Amino acid sequence: MDGIVNVVTILGDRVTNNIKGTFASMTAEKWIRLVIIVGAYALLRPYIIKLGGKAQMKQHEEESAEAMRGTISPNELRGQKAMVRLPGEDSDSEDDEANGESSAADWGKKARKRQRMVIKKLIEAEEDRLRESKEEEEDKDIEEFLLKD
Fold first, then answer.
1. pLDDT of residue 90
2. In the Cβ-directed half-sphere of 49, how many Cα atoms lie within 13 Å?
3. What is the DSSP code string of 73-138?
């Protein structure tokens, strides 16, 4: 416990001695320089804060405008385009090559095409299943009305 008290007293003595020494050794030139620096800071601070506020507001407006356009997928954030196309779209050619752009990974084109085909087949199978179940329900409704007599 004595060690901590000694460290605190030594630290206090050094701080007071350094502050007294600093102000005692100040010349008129150093005082004028200090006043100029503090005054310039006091005069320019409001303008700097306004400038920073405008920049922050502009950035916030850009972010909110982008949020209004729609949600961004994680792949778009990484610079990649969406890999899954809707069933109505049968374009297997790469749009990136036509536009001169390149995605993050140019390899695996065949794998992406295979994946698109698998997803397309799954969607078509689900649509067929739903269509058949709907037809069966309609047939049951018609049969119900026909067999009422």
1. 53
2. 6
3. -HHHHTTPPP----TT----S-HHHHHT---S--S-HHHHHHHHHHHHHHHHHHHHHHHHHHHHHH
CB 96 within 8 A of CB 102: yes
Beta-carbon contacts of 81 under 8 Å, excluding residues fewer than 6 positions away, are: 75, 95, 96, 103
**Which two three-digit tokens encode residue 48?**
């700097």
| Residue listed under structure tokens 């995605």 | 103
**CA–CA distance, 39 with 48 (Å, rounded to integer):** 14
Q: Which amino acid is at 73?
A: S
Structural contact between residues 75 and 82, judged by C-beta atoms closer than 8 angstroms: yes
User: Tell me, what DSSP letter sits at residue 94?
Assistant: -
Helix, strand, coil tally for the chain in percent (to 5): 75, 0, 25
Average pLDDT, consecutive stretches of 10 residues, N- to C-terminus, the chain (149 residues): 92 95 91 96 96 94 77 68 53 49 62 89 92 88 76
| Global confidence as pTM | 0.34
